[in-house]
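Reopening this ticket.

The earlier resolution said the output was attached, but the attachment link was broken on my side. Pasting everything inline this time so it's all in one place.
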Amino acid sequence: MEKKSYTFDEIKLKLVNYCVYQDRCHAEVEQKMREFLLIEEAKEEIMLYLLKENYLNEERFTRSYIRGKFYIKHWGKNKIRMNLKQKQISEKLINKCFDEIDEADYEKTIRKIYEDYASKQKGLKEYQKKSKTIKYLMSRGFEYEKINDIFD
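Inline output:
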């Protein structure tokens, strides 16, 4: 199938709409631009336009991503950090934006996931249940030290 060719302004509009639909990071926009086979100068011009007009804002994206993954998906900080690094977000920005997660909410979420998961473990000794539940929480991205602090 033949790819449809677009003018520079059409591509720019498509990328604006892409950023308006949901907060995006630089890596996602660059990936989207690869679909349009643009020359470097055109890519740079579009990126500068998106940044200047505030369609593309790395801090806003990071804060939104952290809120969504924690409050909706119930991911821990380790998993969120790892996924943001895959999106080429700097460690400094990630650490700065983790204030989006309230510590009381974080502990409450760990407790709730712990209780929900532990209650589903049938026919296991108490230490096996605890061990399995801690492993589950760690797979969700919660820190071992934080889990231990809460349940010791």
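Reporter confirms the inline version is readable. The chain has a mean pLDDT of 92. The CA atoms of residues 9 and 15 lie 10 Å apart.
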